[in-house]
Specification:
Number of strands: 13
Largest sheet: 6 strands, mixed
Structural class: alpha/beta
Radius of gyration: 22 Å
Distance between the termini: 40 Å
Order of helices and strands: HEHEHEHEEHEHHHHHHHHHHEEEHEEEE
Number of helices: 16
């Protein structure tokens, strides 16, 4: 049988890697399993040491120095299996390694690795599941980088992507290796991915799971909390359906810690500016999984249940504004913004006052503290009520608010008369 030829499709992060590799000797790609780290790094590497292969791992353990051998660039894939790799590369950098010499790729953050051990030597680059533009869903006409420039660019473009297609993308996953599957095969792949985390990855990171079913229930409750700031106490309670004894904090805290080390859980931090224009902002993070498809699968959701509202009756009880579909659509938008913001050297956060009177779904912050504010609406149209928090923020920030937009499921990108932009999700790009 003929082998399948897979053509690499360039990603947003490739531009970042091009810029960094031109000057820096060592880059470390980090991110959840199957986000495409190996494929992206292999496009650049002339030598590959694959440490997920037991034979190569054994050879490296016997003689770690061999990992530095071969024509540059050298890729050390799944380097966390031989933690000495980090110090080897660090010392090679100190000894004067050339720009672009080393690429490290890893799917978990090893315990005990201190940030100073690689500071100014090995630079981390985050990889995430595919954004909509990288999936080929829509043709972006609005650039996040341009919004961050603060010039209030004219917005335009038309999208043919409808609500049903956004639901499809929520369920289809942004993990590149899963894009060719659908239906039962895709569900089986996602189930296997999640089960491997429970059965294998936790133990690999030194945490024995004594009750796999309890971990699965906690992960489902966390998935139900997507795009909310629900307390971890609320998530613990939802994991048991309010029935019986809740798992102890000493049990669930390692769940969260390990899932963060695996880059499966990626909360959105609160935006807490130093400006005295905000005296009472809430600090809890907004919960998100790396890929909304993982959240949907943990909740056992399919397109019909999301579109007809049945998902709201079956998901674990987590207080939220709006529907489960609305929360997962925000998860999809958050993933997109994170990919595009990283390319622009910006960070994605959220804003909520302590009283809950005002909240902004997502805040994209430049290095100088100036921001683009983003609301997410699961609807094709926008009215004055949808922008009230954005105009409130503009009144307080003045010129520090670079731009404000509402991301929708609609057709047209445009600016309202009040200056707020309206952008269909499929039209936003880097």
């Amino acid at each position: 049988m003929a082998s399948r030829i897979v053509t690499y499709r360039r990603r947003v992060v490739d531009d970042e890697l091009d810029d960094l590799a031109a000057s820096l000797p060592a880059l470390a790609l980090e991110g959840a399993k199957a986000v495409g780290k190996t494929a992206t790094a292999s496009e650049r590497a002339r030598t590959v040491h694959a440490l997920d292969d037991p034979t190569q791992r054994a050879l490296a353990a016997a003689d770690p120095s061999r990992l530095l051998s071969g024509p540059f660039p050298v890729l050390i894939d799944e380097w966390q299996y031989v933690p000495d790799t980090w110090d080897l590369v660090r010392r090679a950098v100190d000894a004067g390694a050339q720009a672009g010499a080393f690429l490290l790729a890893g799917s978990a953050a090893p315990s005990g690795l201190t940030t100073h051990s690689g500071a100014a030597r090995i630079v981390f680059v985050r990889m995430r599941p595919l954004a909509l533009a990288e999936r080929g869903v829509g043709v972006p006409t609005v650039s996040l980088r341009a919004l961050l420039a603060g010039t209030r660019p004219t917005l335009g473009g038309t999208s043919d992507v409808r609500l049903e297609e956004y639901v499809h993308e929520i369920l289809a996953s942004g993990l590149p290796g899963l894009r060719s599957y659908d239906g039962r095969a895709l569900r089986a792949q996602l189930d296997g991915y999640l089960q491997r985390i429970i059965d294998h990855d936790f133990e690999e990171l030194g945490h024995t799971v004594r009750n796999p079913a309890a971990l699965r229930r906690w992960m489902a409750a966390y998935a139900a909390a997507s795009s909310t700031t629900a307390t971890y106490e609320t998530i613990r309670d939802a994991a048991t359906g309010g029935q019986g004894e809740k798992p102890a904090k000493t049990t669930t805290l390692p769940y969260r810690d390990v899932l963060e080390r695996l880059w499966i859980v990626e909360p959105v931090p609160a935006w807490l500016p130093t400006s005295n224009r905000f005296s009472r902002l809430s600090a809890p993070p907004k919960h998100q999984l790396a890929d909304p498809a993982l959240a949907a699968r943990l909740l056992g959701l399919e397109a019909g249940a999301l579109l007809d509202g049945a998902a709201d009756a079956t998901a674990p009880a987590i207080p939220r504004d709006g529907t489960v579909l609305g929360s997962l659509f925000e998860s999809l938008v958050t993933l997109n913004l994170r990919v595009y913001a990283q390319a622009a050297e910006a960070e994605v956060k959220h804003l909520r006052t302590v009283t809950g009177n005002h909240e902004i779904d997502l805040i994209v912050e430049r290095g100088d503290g100036r921001v683009v504010a983003v609301e997410v609406k699961l609807a094709p149209t926008v009215d004055d009520r949808d922008v009230r928090h954005l105009t409130w923020l503009r009144d307080r920030l003045g010129t520090d608010l670079l731009d404000a937009i509402v991301i929708t499921t609609g057709r047209e990108a445009y600016r309202r008369t009040d200056g707020v932009g309206v952008v269909p999700a499929a039209l936003l790009g880097s």
